[in-house]
Amino acid sequence: MWVPPAEVRPVSLTDVATLLAHTAVTRPLNGVREIAGPEQFRLDAFVRTALLTDAEYRQVRTDARSPFYGARLRPRDLLPGPDAFIARTTYRDWFAGRPAPDSTS
After folding, report:
1. pTM for the full model?
2. Is residue 99 exposed (0-12), middle (13-18) or buried (19+ Cβ within 10 Å)?
């Protein structure tokens, strides 16, 4: 798997749901609200780590020319702007609290 070395700030689903619920009951923004996780990772390293923790054996290779959903990314293209909502859940906290994988298959 080829992955670009773009910087990302992953967000837990719980934090996304919390911001969505808050947004639904507040005054309209008439704009865009960005959300970002509290930690910054390189996408290739993040994918590599995530696959290792799920006992996945595909190799992750870094390639700055590798497209991301059809687009070529610059290193900071996926980072939020200065007014983004910064979520609280770290990757380590999310991982520790996630349900165990189903081992019956």
Report:
1. 0.81
2. exposed
